[in-house]
Amino acid sequence: MAADIVILTITGGEFRVLLIERGKDPFGGRLALPGGFVEADETVDDAAARELFEETGFEAGESLLERFGVYSEPDRDPRRRVVSVAYTALVPEPPQTRAGGDAAETAWVPVERALEEPLAFDHSRILGDAVAHARRRLEYTTAATAFCPKEFTIAELRRVYEIVWRTRLDPGNFHRKVLRIEGFLEPVDGTTVRNGGRPAALYTAGPLEWLPLPLSPAR
Amino acid sequence: MAADIVILTITGGEFRVLLIERGKDPFGGRLALPGGFVEADETVDDAAARELFEETGFEAGESLLERFGVYSEPDRDPRRRVVSVAYTALVPEPPQTRAGGDAAETAWVPVERALEEPLAFDHSRILGDAVAHARRRLEYTTAATAFCPKEFTIAELRRVYEIVWRTRLDPGNFHRKVLRIEGFLEPVDGTTVRNGGRPAALYTAGPLEWLPLPLSPAR
DNA sequence: CCAAAAGTGTTCGGTCTACACCCATGA
DNA sequence: TCATGGGTGTAGACCGAACACTTTTGG
C-alpha cells in the first residue's frame, strides 16, 4: 500500500506540478510523483499528508488534499505488487521545495510539459487523471481558493481559473458572480495594491464547498 | 486489500441498498455491505465487479460502478488490518438477489432505514458516504440513467430524481430541461403505456457523463 | 496627467418557474 | 366519457454576457 501525491500550484502565471527525479532503478533518472508507503499505524490519508509535509512543508490543513484514484494493476511496479492511492494537493505558492528527505532533485514543472514527458511507473496516467480531476473540481467546488494565499483579492482568484482552464474571464462579471454565491468568499478588513492599480478588497475562503452552479466560462 | 460495494437501486418507489446478514463473528447477526478480498492477479476494480456479479448477476457494464472512498483506519477490522476500497453500484431493478455464494441472507433495505441501523464494522459510515456521493453524482452527472431500464421514459427518469432527492419536480419543465441537454438522452423508436395515460416516448442514455449545469430542484 | 487594475451600471437576450392547457391512451 | 399521465405554450421574473464607465492608486 502506497500513497502517491500530485502537488499542484500556480506560480509565475503557470500551472505546475511537483516532480522528483528518481535516483535508483527502476526508472532511474526519470521524473516521478512524490509518494511513499503507508505505515502499519496510520491511514492512507495520514501517509499522504506526511508525504506532502516532507516534500513541501505544508500541513494538510494549509492545502486541499483530496484522494482521486486507486491504481492497482498487479504489474504497475516491476518489483512487486503495490496498490497506490493517489491524491491531489492544491497548494498556494511554491515555498522553495525542501531538498530534504530522499535527497532527490525536486522541481515545479509546468503541467503542460509534465504531461508530455514520460514519467516513471504509471505516473503519466496518474498525472493525467489528477489534472482532469482538478479542472473538474474547480468547476463544481470552491477548490480554487486553495491556490490563493490566506487573504486574496477577487482578481487573484479569477487568475487561478484563467490559468487552470486556459480561458479569459470578464473581470466585472466574475466579480459579481462570486460575491453573490453565499459562503464562497468572506470579506476581511484591509486592501492591497500588490497587483497595481486601484486598491483591491481582500477576502478569505468561506465555509462553502460545493458551488450551487458551475463557475464555467460560459454556457 | 478488500473491496466493499454499496449496491443501490430504486424499487417500489423507494431508494434501497443491498445488505447481507453476517453469519459469523465478528458482528454475527448484523447487517453488512457485500465485499471481499482482492486477489493477487486482479485490480481492485475487478474485485468490485466480481463482487457485484456474485451478489446480483449484473455485469459491470450493466450498472454504474464507481469508486468513492478508501477506508484504512488500522483497527476498522478487529481481526487484522484491512484497507477497503468502497464502491457504489447503481443498478436498474433488483432482479431477485441470488442467495448463492456466501449463502448468507441478502435484502434490499430502504436507504433511510439502513442509515439508522447499526451495521457491521464501519459500514454505517461507508453507507452514509455512499449515499451522499450518489446524491451529488445525480446532481452533476448523468448517473440517474443507471437506475432506469435500458429503454425508459422521461417520467421514469424524473421519478429517479424525485425519489433520491425526496423532492417534487415539475413534469413539463423537467421534460424540456433534459431534452435540451445534448448527449444526455437519445430517442428510440416506440412508445410505452406501462405507466398508464398517454403513450410515452422511449429513450436510452446518451454518451454524456457530466451535465453542463446541475439538474437541481431549483435555484 | 496617464496607465493600470478594481469595481459598478446598463442593456439585451436567453433561460427558468409556474401554471394553464392540449394530447393519446385504457377502462 | 372520464381518469391518467405525457407533453406543449406562455408570461413574467431572473440571470448572464458584453461592454461602457467610474474609482483609486502609482509613476
Automatic annotation (TrEMBL), chains A, B:
Superkingdom of source: Bacteria
Assigned keywords, A-Z: Hydrolase
UniProt entry tagged with the keyword Hydrolase: yes
PROSITE patterns linked: NUDIX (PS51462), NUDIX_BOX (PS00893)
One Gene Ontology term of the molecular function aspect: hydrolase activity
One Pfam family named in its UniProt record: WHD_NrtR
Gene3D superfamilies: Nucleoside Triphosphate Pyrophosphohydrolase, Winged helix-like DNA-binding domain superfamily/Winged helix DNA-binding domain
Protein name: NUDIX domain-containing protein
Source species: Glycomyces albidus
